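Key result, reporting period 2: structure in, sequence out.
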């Protein structure tokens, strides 16, 4: 099996956006500084930050790679993140027209699962509820990304098998079926493309995800 998925460098760029880097913001201070100038090559033009880096949209500074053009707040997102039972106001996602014919690859990205910052960091729970409406004809791969440590808990329909779960890594790339990211979430609902459900099984993935630096 090839282990080449969506560009995880763009995942880091999205987290940069979630924490206030660029994303069509005004340039800062007397020097017209644009955060993210090193990683996503943000530059100040006419008082606003734009991005000239490869695989980033010039105007929004959001990732645009392998057919996955990240957009903000769209109803087309396959995953719906919540925090304290409330929908998040700002979400980023993509649903490429052309996906892999071999796998169904879904990425869930979050900065943190709880707003209380502790040092050393403590892993908090985030629940992923898999929703399906038919049997999938491809193996399903789930990619879970976070900046702060997270305990991921998967609620799976009985007839659904997750072939592989990947916890964030860098320097891996490829096409995806969907991507959804937000700043803070402790619960997700992910609609699979074509999968069936019959009852719910719960898989506990108590794995502390290492913080990755950008």
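The corresponding designed sequence is given below.
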């Amino acid at each position: 099996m090839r282990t080449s998925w969506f560009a995880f460098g763009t995942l880091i760029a999205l987290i940069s956006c979630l924490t206030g880097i660029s994303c069509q913001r005004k340039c800062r201070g007397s020097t017209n500084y644009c955060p993210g100038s090193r990683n996503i090559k943000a530059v100040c033009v006419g008082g606003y930050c734009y991005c000239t880096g490869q695989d980033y949209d010039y105007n929004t500074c959001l990732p645009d790679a392998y057919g996955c053009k990240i957009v903000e707040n769209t109803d087309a997102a396959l995953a719906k993140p919540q925090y304290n039972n409330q929908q998040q106001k700002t979400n980023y996602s993509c649903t490429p027209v052309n996906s892999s014919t071999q796998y169904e690859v879904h990425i869930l990205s979050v900065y943190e699962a709880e707003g209380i910052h502790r040092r050393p960091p403590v892993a908090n729970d985030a629940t992923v509820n898999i929703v399906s409406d038919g049997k999938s004809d491809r193996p399903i791969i789930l990619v879970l990304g976070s900046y702060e440590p997270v305990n991921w808990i998967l609620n799976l329909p009985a007839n659904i098998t997750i072939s592989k779960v990947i916890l964030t890594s860098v320097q891996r790339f490829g096409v995806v079926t969907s991507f959804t990211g937000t700043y803070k979430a402790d619960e997700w609902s992910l609609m699979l493309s074509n999968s069936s459900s019959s009852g719910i099984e719960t898989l506990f993935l108590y794995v502390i995800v290492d913080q990755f630096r950008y």
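The chain is about 5% helix and 40% strand. The helical segments are 8-18. This case is discussed further under Risks and Mitigation.
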